[in-house]
Design a protein that fits this description.
By secondary structure, the chain is α/β, with parallel strands linked by helices. It has 9 helices and 5 strands. A 5-stranded parallel beta sheet has the order 2-3-1-4-5, with helices on both faces. α2 crosses α4. The longest helix has 15 residues. The radius of gyration is 17 Å and the shape is globular.
Length: 189
């Protein structure tokens, strides 16, 4: 099973990815984790990424695409994968389409975890309060900025994948177990 999880920050993509990993025995591919892993493994792309980050620059789409492509070739991705945090833009989605076609595979589904902005802000603030160890993005101003970036750059992927008849939407504001059940139902599993 080859999946993409879409949704705004705080919608529960990471939580659902972990559940789906266990349920289907496929890895979650988080762009940030892949970049850190490539750097640690000192792959040629990893060394290039390290140099870029050391300069304080952003990693280009070409490099992110290369890192994703490398990771998709790993043995544990043969039965499938869950992409979380990639693609973030239409350009990245188009690159992913070409990449998968070159590998002779295709996506099975794109799961949109839908959530309301004000509820997400409450959720993240509560998470910070309850855990006692706030993450850097666990404050309202930062979260609202990230939600704006998501709306501008990533939300257009909903229409992109709907046009390809790959999109399945679930209510991310339901309890975790209900979201999981809705995802499995949307996947026909």
């Amino acid at each position: 099973m080859r999946l993409i999880l879409l949704g705004p920050p705080g919608a529960g993509k990471g939580t659902q990815a972990k559940v789906l990993m266990d349920a289907y025995g496929i890895p979650q591919l988080s762009t940030g984790d892949i970049l850190r892993s490539a750097i640690a493994a000192q792959t040629p792309l990893g060394l290039e990424v390290k140099a870029i980050l050391d300069r304080g620059d952003l990693v280009s789409d070409d490099i992110v695409n290369g890192i994703i492509s490398e990771r998709l070739d790993a043995e544990d991705c043969k039965p499938g994968f869950i992409l979380d945090g990639f693609p973030r833009t239409i350009a990245q989605a188009e690159s992913l389409d070409r990449m998968l076609a070159d590998k002779g595979v295709s996506l099975d589904a794109v799961i949109e975890i839908k959530a309301e902005t004000d509820e997400l802000v409450k959720r993240v603030i509560n998470r910070a309060r309850e855990s006692g160890t706030a993450r850097g993005d666990d404050n309202e101003d930062v979260l609202r900025k990230r939600l704006g970036v998501y709306s501008e750059q990533t939300a257009p992927l909903v229409a992109y994948y709907a046009d390809k008849q790959l999109l399945r939407t679930v209510d991310g504001m339901a309890p975790v177990e209900q979201v999981t059940a809705a995802i499995k139902s949307a996947l026909g599993k």
